[in-house]
Specification:
Order of helices and strands: HEEEEHEHEEEEH
Number of helices: 4
Shape: globular
Number of domains: 1
Strand content: 35-45%
Distance between the termini: 14 Å
Helix content: 10-25%
CATH topology: Pnp Oxidase, Chain A
Largest sheet: 7 strands, antiparallel
Number of strands: 9
């Protein structure tokens, strides 16, 4: 879909620019109505310092989007380079077909957050509102629990861009 007033050349340049960005990757998990879900996410960012707020974009085609709409908390797991297999599990499989949580270690955290045991850095965000962002839905949250592990080099988009996603964007 071409935005009004945008030229094909401008869109081509835009897509070329953003394809070279190196977003940090996170696994986002959610639980609601007795169901868990999680996915690999590149669209996330801090959007306020005081009060602290975080914005997470999840594809509307993703199982986690549907669970997230019912959830009160989303947990963002900040991945290090050593977490490629965890990223592959949550990026290449779909919760529509597979229970990813039978393939990894996890526990229930504060306020029902789903916390992956093998991820050193995570933050649970209470969802305060959400917005339609186009093909992704934007969840805005405030931190309610967090754990910081050891220093690590982040897993980034350029390191996972060759994954075969469980769903198209």
């Amino acid at each position: 879909m071409t935005p009004p007033g945008a030229s094909p050349d401008a869109l081509k340049a835009f897509h070329s620019i953003v394809s070279h960005l190196d977003y940090p990757m996170v696994v986002v998990t959610a639980a609601a109505a007795g169901e868990r879900s999680g996915c690999l996410v590149g669209f996330h960012t801090q959007c306020s310092i005081d009060p602290p707020r975080w914005l997470i974009g999840i594809s509307k085609k993703n199982h986690t989007y549907r669970i997230g709409l019912q959830a009160g908390v989303l947990t963002a797991h900040f991945l290090g380079e050593q977490d490629v297999e965890l990223a592959r599990l949550f990026g290449e499989e779909t919760g529509d077909e597979v229970d990813k949580f039978t393939r990894c270690r996890w526990h229930e955290g504060p306020l029902g957050a789903v916390v992956l045991d093998d991820c050193a850095d995570w933050v649970a965000f209470r969802i305060i509102d959400h917005h339609d962002g186009g093909d992704h839905f934007l969840f805005r949250g405030e931190p309610v629990a967090a754990e910081r592990g050891q220093e690590q080099r982040q897993l980034s988009f350029q390191m996972v861009k060759d994954f075969h996603p469980g769903h198209e964007a």
